[in-house]
Structures are given as structure tokens and as C-alpha cells.
Amino acid sequence: MAIFGRRPDGVLLTKLPGFRKMFPYLMPTRTESYIHYEHKIRVARTNRFLDQLNSGRTGPKITMFHVVLAAACRMMALRPDANRFVSGKRIYQRKEIAYSFVTKKELTDTAPETNVKLTFQPTDTLLEVAQRVFDAVSQVKKSKSSADEDICDTLTALPRFMTRIALWGWKVLDYWNLLPASAIKGDSLYCSAYFANLGSIGLPAVQHHLFEWGNCPFFVVIGKGEKSLLVDGDGNTTVEDIVTSTFTLDERITDGVSYARIIHMLVGFIEDPQQLMSPPDKLPDPFELA
């Protein structure tokens, strides 16, 4: 039935090569199909740019985290193959750019963590991305609880066998594309990418796993800024400001050459964020292979 090929969050890619379509069968889970990658990002120019941007600015400051989010948004607008996901053994093009991250309501050990999920436009600039984040975090800090927290509190209050049945039923509905749009929209693990900003709490980047829940194929961890000794191709050494970031990728959604170009583009935007101050001139059709 045609209904089983339609999802509120994605469009089925029917024109992919058969070899690519086989990947979800050969590697049924994200746990067995992920790739870890680590990159040292040169951020001296980025730091100078942020200093200039924030000079005399009133209100919240633009940070490295906002640059990374804006860079990822621009990358996925220009490389829509990075914004795919696997569900029900099929590969879909996501309909929107949606990013999730965790924030604490207060910087204390006892303050609860809550997930934030935001959608962005392909034409968003750095300032527009930052403003969406400012607004969302401000709203979270004012609220007593989030949808994720309320659902988790309800499910964990049930007997264990009922919690397992409820989660099993959700996954069955998801497999057959029968989940309502409201359920997917409210779940932070149905997203284009999940970001962990460990640098904000002074920690280095770690290699993070992908979640089997939801359909997020991309996990990005941003570590703390530090000085590092780098060696170029001629053997010359320099000490530079770097931020180590790690990427965990679901290799089923696109090929290795594409992933290399995706990461190269993302890093390029982070290292030169001036490019993110204006919208892109031209964007590809993300549904060309639908």
C-alpha cells in the first residue's frame, strides 16, 4: 500500500542505486553501521570573527556552538544527502533540517537536563540560527518540564512489562510509517543531527554512539578549545588554536566519498564563518532521487 511508503518527516528515495537500497538489509541497525571520525578544527580565525561579532553586542553572545549549528545547517542545505535517514529498511530524504541538543536549566549538578529540538531553514544565516537557539533555551529555562520529560515520567511510572510493550508498539508503528506527525515532531531523536557541546563544560570531545531509537543518523560532539601542535605535509610544525570534534555517522545513507566532502564542507564553514552571514545563492533539489 502506498501509505506505508509515506512519512510525515521524510520522502522515500526510490531512485537510489540498488546497492545503496540493500544497505539497510545488510546492516539492519545503526549500532552496526556507524562510522566514527575525529577532526581537529583550526579556530583562530573563528575566534577572531566571534570577538568582532560580539564586540559591542547587547544580549547573549554568539558562540562556537552557534557557528557549528549554522555550519551544519548550511552544509545540509548544500549537501542534502547528509540529511537522509533509514526507517523500515528504507532510505528517506528528511523534509526539514532539524537539530537536537541537551541543555540544563541551571549549571548545577542537580538541575535537570532537557532536550531541545529545533528546525531551521536552508537559507538561515548564523545570526538567524543563533536567535532560534537563544529563544528556545530561554523558553526551556522558564518552563517547569518538557514534552520528553513528561512522557518519560509517565512511561517509567508504569510496570516494566507495560513500558516494554508501549515502546515495542511505538517501534512497530514507526516501522510501518504509522506514527502521527505530532509524535515524531516532539521526539528529539527524530532529527537530522544531534549535537553535544562538551566544550561548554570544559571537556574534550568523545566518540559518541548513535541511538537505535528514532532515526538520527548523525551525532556531533564539540570539545573544548585548546592549543595543539600541528604538522603540515612538509613536516613544518605550528602551534594553533583548535577544537577537536567527533562525528558518528550512519554509513547507510550515503557513500564514503560523499561523507568526506560533507565533513570537509562542514569544517570549512566552521573555520571561516563569515560565509554564514549571508544566505546561500543557490540550493540543490533535495528530493531529486525521490
Explained architecture:
34% of the residues lie in helices and 24% in strands. It is built from 8 helices and 9 strands. α3 crosses α4 (126-142) and α3 crosses α8 (256-271). The mean pLDDT is 93.
Key attributes of the depicted protein:
three-stranded antiparallel sheet, Chloramphenicol Acetyltransferase, six-stranded mixed sheet, about 290 residues, 9 strands, alpha+beta
Short précis:
It is built from eight helices and nine strands. It has 290 residues and is an alpha+beta fold. It has one domain (2-274): Chloramphenicol acetyltransferase-like domain (Chloramphenicol Acetyltransferase, 2-Layer Sandwich).
Order of helices and strands: EHEHHEEEEHHHHEEEH
Helix content: 25-40%
Silhouette = globular
According to CATH, the fold-level topology is Chloramphenicol Acetyltransferase
Runs in which pLDDT lies below 50 for 5 or more consecutive residues are none
The largest beta-sheet arranges its strands as 2-9-8-7-5-6
CATH superfamily: Chloramphenicol acetyltransferase-like domain
Total separate domains: 1
Largest sheet: 6 strands, mixed
User: Which structural class is indicated by helix and strand composition?
Assistant: alpha+beta
CATH classification, class level: Alpha Beta
